[in-house]
Amino acid sequence: MRYPSPSNPNPASCTSAGRCLPSARRESGVSLIELVIFIAVVGAAVTGLLLVYARSVSGSADPLVRKQATAIAESLLSEVLSQPFTYCDPQDVANDPAAPPASTAACTGGAAGSEDKGGGTLGPQPSSETRFSSTNPFDNVADYNGYAMSSGIYGFDDATTPIAGLAAYSASVTVTRSGLALGLATDADALRVDVQVSGHGETVTLTGYRTRHSPTSTG
């Protein structure tokens, strides 16, 4: 016989022969179904976290690529902004040091023949100018509008072979009138230069401004 008590709710069982057997303990645990559900929930959560991480990594920019693209954009922007911003092409005969042009109207061909092209689309003036020419090169900020390197970055000295390590990059230049936005008298009194460089899935755009501080410079 066994008799429960407050201190021993599961007393040992004794037989009539006086032999006592230890009482069976009630044990608690996790069932197989509960374990399977737990594994499924944790697995789904981990999978979700891994997907978010993978997308974050794939969408983040490679610091080295971005630094390289920025360096290219800075170099090209500096090149453009270092050019003259004149009424007439620096090689125009109208750029007489003794009697320099006072406006675009004084250029050969009038305002339409000036670097401002009479308010038309900016670009090389004359149209035969190129970035790589030794005799008729870009020599004005406005000449660079529309210039692009679509399959590699090139230096002045080689128009056929990209600079080593930069063949996968491309670059483009946009030049627009921006005088009024800067509070100047006319839109033609300042130019905005946007340089965009792309490569290895990364794109960088830098912007600079050039005012007409030396309108009568000669080439």
Describe the structure.
With 219 residues, this protein is an alpha+beta fold. 21% of the residues lie in helices and 16% in strands. It has helices spanning 32-59, 63-81; strands spanning 13-14, 20-21, 148-149, 169-177, 190-199, 202-211. The strands form two sheets. The protein has a four-stranded antiparallel β-sheet with strand order 3-4-5-6.
Keywords:
four-stranded antiparallel beta sheet, 21% helix, elongated, two-stranded antiparallel ribbon, alpha+beta, 219 residues, 16% strand
What is the topology?
Blueprint: E1 13-14, E2 20-21, H1 32-59, H2 63-81, E3 148-149, E4 169-177, E5 190-199, E6 202-211
Antiparallel strand pairs: 1-2, 3-4, 4-5, 5-6
Summed up, what is this model?
The chain is α+β, with helices and mostly antiparallel strands and 219 residues long.
Oligomer: single chain
Q: Helical region count?
A: 2
- What is the percentage of strand-forming residues? 15-25%
Secondary structure category? alpha+beta
Rg measurement, Å: 39 Å
**Low-pLDDT stretches:** none
- Please report the total strand number as a whole number: 6
